Amino acid sequence: MNVVNTEYMDRFTLNGKTAIITGGAAGIGLAFSEGYLEAGASVMVCDIRTTPELEDLQKRYSDHLCFTLCDVTKTPDIDRAIAETRKTFGGIDILLNNAAIFDMAPLTESHEQMYDKIFSAVAKVMIEQKTHGKIINMASQAGRRGEALVSHYCASKAAVISYTQSAALALAPYHINVNAVSPGVVDTPMWKEVDALFARYEGLKPGEKKAAVGRQVPLGYMGKPIDIVGAAIFLASSASDYITAQTVNVDGGNVMS
């Protein structure tokens, strides 16, 4: 009779862990929230608004999911979110730095948004706790290449990839892993806005850009939020303890690196 060693599978769970997920109320962030809960974590969702979908999720995981209004560009909001997380769940093991803003305009009309203040604040908590923390940043295939109409967005995501590498080296002595996930084109409600912007600037009909980018993916279709979740769970679990400073592409083959 074969005896199954569960030690390996246990390394892929998030049982007993507490995660902060920024921008976790909708789209890919909501999928992360649900995926982490199903993997065994307790989750504090930080977002600028709640959603019916998140409220439904709270009903299903009332003991393990909390929500706090938080603008990650505002230090008081960050401090409050961290305090609420520690009070409710006792500590912070994982930060999924997902909150982002998509902006499209010609270079001369665009502006840059910064939203990484929560990174350093949570890292300090993890250092104080002296636990094996995991920080996952959300990059994008846009950070791997330039695009004329989204120059600042591409630059910000390239900065996320570079920042992930530097932060990983800085936090390695404290046994805190820092990695990033780089999605490709993902079918979320935001794509309605993105498609409309491309239609405006490229003279396309509504839906044309979305259909085209899906066909251009080597696997032949746009990803769904659930397609991104597995990588985020893996990088938050103990199965990835020896992985740091990396950016994992989850893009259907769009970027090869």
TrEMBL record:
Pathway assignment: Lipid metabolism; fatty acid biosynthesis
Entries under PANTHER family matching the protein: 3-OXOACYL-[ACYL-CARRIER-PROTEIN] REDUCTASE, SHORT-CHAIN DEHYDROGENASES/REDUCTASES FAMILY MEMBER
Name this protein carries in UniProt: 3-ketoacyl-[acyl-carrier-protein] reductase beta subunit
GO MF terms held by the record: oxidoreductase activity, acting on the CH-OH group of donors, NAD or NADP as acceptor; quinone binding
Pfam families recorded: adh_short_C2 (PF13561)
Keyword Transferase appears in the UniProt entry: no
Positions in coiled-coil regions: none
Cited PROSITE patterns: ADH_SHORT
Family note: Belongs to the short-chain dehydrogenases/reductases (SDR) family.
Organism: Potamilus streckersoni
Record carries keyword Magnesium: no
InterPro entries, per the entry: NAD(P)-bd_dom_sf, Sc_DH/Rdtase_CS, SDR_fam
Source superkingdom: Eukaryota
GO biological process: fatty acid biosynthetic process
Keywords: Oxidoreductase
